[in-house]
Amino acid sequence: MDIVERFLSYVRYDTQSDETTSLTPSTPSQMVFAKMLEAELLALGLEDVSVSEYGYVTATLPANNGKDKPVVGFIAHMDTSPDFSGKNVNPRIVKSYDGSDIILNDELNIVMKVADFGELRDYIGQDIIVTDGTTLLGADDKAGVASIVGAMQYLIEHPEVQHGKIRVCFTPDEEIGEGADHFDVQAFGADFAYTMDGGAVGELEYETFNAAEATVVFNGRNVHPGYAQHKMKNSMRIASSFIAMLPRHETPEHTCDYEGFYHLTSVEGNVERTVLHYIIRDFKRERFEDRKIEMQHLVNKINAEYGECTAEIEMRDQYYNMREKIEPVMHIVDIAKQAMINKGIEPRIQPVRGGTDGSRLSFMGLPTPNIFAGGLNFHGKYEFLPIPSLKKAQEIVVEISKLVSEIN
Fold this sequence. Notes:
This protein is an alpha+beta fold. Helices cover 30% and strands 22% of the residues. The chain contains 10 helices and 17 strands. The protein has an 8-stranded mixed β-sheet with strand order 1-2-8-3-9-16-10-15, with helices on one face. A 4-stranded antiparallel β-sheet has the order 12-13-11-14. The longest helix has 22 residues, at 285-306. It is globular and about 85 Å long.
């Protein structure tokens, strides 16, 4: 099976995660996919293949160069985003893309327009995989899974390529921030690893946001509107004043590069009770902590104006900038850079305006930069995957394995 066939078979598994279940994996379909991967890895000839009770698939490709150290790991997540349907994915290949708008679904008049997605122009002449406009594609991160499995198959079929011991792991629930919750770093046994979970060819990332989530509850008091003067407390209006107090340009739609933000993700409310959900992001740890202090400060201001316990806040840190843990071992970034150069790819080192499993794994003792897997426009119906990019991701896994084996 070549990598394209492998990817097309993977995306037909519905593996959306679901943050509401409190289970790991959060959906039964992820375990179905995990069991399929277990069987495939065994059939390829990998060793120590297993699926944990939490749905983590792990396997070993033994060294063929007489050395077991250092051990490199490759990681990708199996789940797809709950933001858009991943059920009954029906991908198709646009052959030799000509640069025009792509009709994804003629019947539903769903068109991927070049005017909206200018990056399409970068792939003129290439075969690209698209959706039928009713689901996401699942390249995030089944492209990563396919590139790792494909690379393991290549190394098994080409024993002349020297490599050390390689560990692979496919994780559940990354899309809901739980991909590392039950990852056993000690049992995995790698000295360092790479997540294959980035976008366009050349992406190499070892910086992520520091991240927290916040829930702010506003408690009101409902009274008949005809008799409400000096009695009613409309929690929705109070919540609106809180929203307005946050810096209006420090939001995702107004920031880029190393700029952080406050992001209001949902609002649920009535007169009696309104709940706001936020995520808080910043690359600098000090500024990240300041943002959390500012949220608490604004809650205090609301309570000073409207009365004690009108507003309540709960905050939880989600992950931290992995740069802190990667910089002491920058040689692992240099290996990935050299692998790309060896394959004619210009490395594009940039911060991740988000997080990856590598963020948490790096703080758990497994330094884990992130590398491209090739897909674009994740989490929606306009997602697409250039086939040459997918193949390049597989080549990079192989090349890194070769370079690691040369470390004395």
